[in-house]
Amino acid sequence: MSGKNLDIMRKQIDAIDHKLVTLFERRMAIVDEIADIKRANGLEIYHPEREQAVIDRAVGRLSDQSLVPFVRELFMNMMQLSRKRQGEGMPMAVRRKPPVSADTSIGYQGVRGSFSEEATLGYFGGDASFQNYDAFADVFVALKNGEIQYGVLPIENSNTGSIATVVDLMGEYGFYIIGEEIVKVRYHLWGLPGADLADITHVYSHPQGFLQCHELMDAHRDWLQVPYKNTATSAKYVSEQGDTANASLSSIRAGELYDLAPLAENVQDNDYNYTRFAVIGPEMTADEFCDKISIVFSLDHVPGSLFSALSAFPKYGANILKIESRPIKGVSWEYFFYLDFNGNMADDTTRELLAEVKTHCNFFKLLGNYQACAMPNGKER
Predict the structure, then answer these.
(1) Which member of 16, 142, 203, 255 has the lowest number of beta carbons within 10 Å of its beta carbon?
(2) What angle do CA 132, 138, 143 make, to 5 degrees?
(3) Architecture of 3-94 per CATH?
(4) Domain ranges of the chain
């Protein structure tokens, strides 16, 4: 193929893309008008039957049937963008959460001032009763014993990846994810009032804190890094010890709560630093607003088993958001696969997809169908 012919085809693609953008703008303008009508009449944002009909119509217009999975994915993504657009400015109508009262008990790991407490308050508000626990496993045990109705646990950081302990506990206890909250993570280095950077010899934080503030710690290799079970707990410890040689890598709220002074501000390596928290409960809840599904499964340890299971997702136009493997305890070199994808269990297509995935698995569990949390807009809570 000559370079000239390639240039001609690229110009043709550019011309088509120009038309696509123009049509997309027109479509989203109509989406805005529909949103106004829904607001005025108190109508629901998500209408699965309508979306499925639109997708089926689009697929039915295809001449090339090999494009079916691609068109399904294209239109499912476009529907999701439309829902997101319609949801702007309507947080109470769009964000469905379980009702809580003063009698509702919710557990999180850490102490006051932790990112976990921030996520819990961000999701549930201040009406419920909150219980804090020393370890992630304690939250699961409390939920199992009925001491709390819901738990809030960090499951993934945008920079350092999954919180492996929590992922493993999800598989072990089998509770359901009913929602999620995303918290923007900012770290300050906190010390006692009157302390100076030159005084510091020991820094306390959760191991994730050290990972997310690697540049600061690398610049001060003489500081001893002391892993702590929680960032806010480390701030509390530094405050209680009263030693100017100690410092804590923790949140703004934690440092202020425990009367510490900032020695260095915003020391996270990447300002685009978010932690995703899973809200878990003993029963699965789902409604028309749910657009994210989490599953866990295992496969026969044979060539092609993972490929066969994953091939169902493009076939049904489903967008995989995340997949990771975790070792199966007591079985060497075999793994559970945790996977998140866009979908709603009310959709026939989603149910057909999961039914096909199950045929390839020797273990399968639905961990939840819930509403994805939009990224924070940069404003701190």
Answers:
(1) 16
(2) 85
(3) Up-down Bundle (1.20)
(4) 3-94, 96-184+273-285, 188-264
